[in-house]
Amino acid sequence: MILVTGATGQIGSKITEGLIQSKADVRVFVRDENHLGDLKNENIQVAEGTFEDMESLEKALEGVDRLMLIGQDNPDQVQQHLNVIQAAKRQGVKHIVKLSAFGADKNSPVALMRDHAEIEDAIKDSGMEWTFIRPHLYMQNLLRFGDSVAENNTFLAPMAHDAYSLVDIRDVAEVAATILTTENHNSKIYTLTSPHAENYDEIAETLSSLLGKTITYQAQSPKDFERDLLESGTPEWRAYDLAYISKAYKGSDKHLITSDIEDLLGRPARSVKDFLSDHLSTFKN
């Protein structure tokens, strides 16, 4: 039995879909099963609860061999996941697959990366088998610029002119489902990237080609980007991490490219052009 936490999220839902397609025995852990939408069917078991409710966690983990640990980013994420790890160990879970992040480091200037590192250490110390999935920045973050591109033919981001090997969430989910349903992944860390690193000027050029009009990228300072996020109502902890996320990558790490996706899936990772082509309507009026 495989348990997926965070199954209503954009990655957790896609992992669950992949597991259903592979005919795996799947249980999902959610706050409210009514939020499952199309995932709710006879092919999965549903356990309701929260990361704070140990009783609901232990009930959800009964009979589970493999755990896919995902949670929504929030200031309480470390304690929430420590609760899951403790409950999993008590219930005899054999293997935890954690969705982490490339850049996870206990000394990172970005809180999200420090949190991931602390959770990874706790899993290693638990005595259970483990696998860490560390995706680079998600291509889906580009969708935030849809309205700006559609209305003003430009977008702003605090990424300077450095190249990043962004990764598509769809590839991340497929990798996770593969790891959960195959063997020989114990004590392995998979770093997921696209086949090519691109800066945001190049992404603007790709959008220009696909849309048939000139799109420009404006590099914004992290401080100004954070200010704009705060003014739009983004929580302080989230605004800082989004504005200063580039600081989580040292030197050439920004444009690191790995073959992990192709090695696991037998096909190349999706490119930024693939992603933008599939979501082009987001950038149109």
Automatic annotation (TrEMBL):
**Sorted UniProt keywords:** Oxidoreductase
UniProt cross-references to Pfam families, sorted A to Z: NmrA (PF05368)
Task: Keyword check for Transmembrane helix, yes or no.
Answer: no
State the superkingdom. Answer: Bacteria
Q: Where is the NmrA-like domain?
A: 2-245
Q: Name one GO molecular function term.
A: oxidoreductase activity
| EC assignment | 1.7.-.-
Q: What class of enzyme is it?
A: oxidoreductase
Instruction: Establish whether keyword Nucleus is in the entry.
Output: no
Q: Which SUPFAM superfamilies match?
A: NAD(P)-binding Rossmann-fold domains
- Protein name, UniProt field: NAD(P)H azoreductase
